[in-house]
Amino acid sequence: MKPIAWEDGALVLLDQTRLPWEVTYLRLTDYREVIAAIQRLSVRGAPAIGVSAAYALVLAAREALNSPESFWERLQLAAEELAAARPTAVNLQWAVQRQLRVASSHRGEEPEVVLAALEKTARAMEEEDVRANRAIGAFGAALLPWRARILTHCNAGALATCGYGTALGVVRAAHAAGKVAMVYADETRPLLQGARLTAWELLQEGIPVTLITDSAAGYLMARGEVDAVVVGADRVAANGDVANKIGTYTLAVLAREHQVPFYVAAPFSTVDGATPDGKTIPIEERSAEEVTHFGGVNVAPAGVKVKNYAFDVTPASLLTALITERGVVYPPLAENLKLFAQHQREEGE
Q1: Does the residue 36 lie in any domain?
Q2: Domain for residue 138, yes or no?
Q3: Which of 186, 214, 227, 234 is catalytic?
Q4: In the annotation, is 234 catalytic?
Q5: How confident is the chain (349 residues) per 10-residue block, as mean pLDDT?
Q6: Cβ-contact 164, 128 below 8 angstroms
Q7: C-beta separation of 243 from 235 below 8 A
């Protein structure tokens, strides 16, 4: 499953707004098209958004070659526009800043050199993401019991990354080891990423999956039918608070009440040391129509007010552990995330 590809100077994205009804690919040659694809959720998931933004800056740099006298100004403008496309997913800002550092390291050289360096880095980021996800999968699978019944929310699989998955990477690795009895996929209202994407993805992989309504999760736990909850993340604050798809906080509270382990799986690039806690994470609000309409049909009374938060924040105190490509981070998360970050700096990465 390849949701992102760089082919002949174009970014090719699997259009996730069309799944599961049809498999359609977008071929994008303008960075503004990538911004639009990110905003309408044709590409989604923090890792996938980040890599898409990295390639979008390659497109922006190529366009800026036509105006060499304003090359740097145009590149900076494109970076700012990309970083603002979706405010909660920190991988987006992380990828843009990484590309800007690469570009700055070639300041004074010909723009063509900068373009080549940006493309090389974007390709490297794509490859790094798949390696990181496979490592996350291996670490996470080791935590699950034999014949595990796993509950997940939204889609944190191959579709949300560059081809393997974070939360579903854990599921995929556990399934390969024969440890998965069933995956329960929350439908994930209002855009149904669980119903449309996770259920489709797991069926494609031959992994047993049962779709449930979001409101059924607590009852399943009360019946003793869930052995672990595994979700992804769009941002992890320095203290271990996690921003993820709306409804994740509810699952964490239910898991604590029913003594079910609650795991968050994410690459370390999702950890934002500059954000001290969940209260300081910007939470995106999306259009009211996503809630008032279903399949293009109005299902709510005209004029009703809507609060459509795209994400919520789960306090670090509710996490059993954070699964990263560098290993499993256990509580106290604030302290141990600092140790992981320090080790990363010492390795020079």
Answers
A1: yes
A2: no
A3: 234
A4: yes
A5: 92 96 96 96 94 97 93 96 92 95 94 97 96 97 98 96 96 98 98 97 97 98 98 97 98 98 96 96 96 93 97 98 97 96 71
A6: no
A7: yes
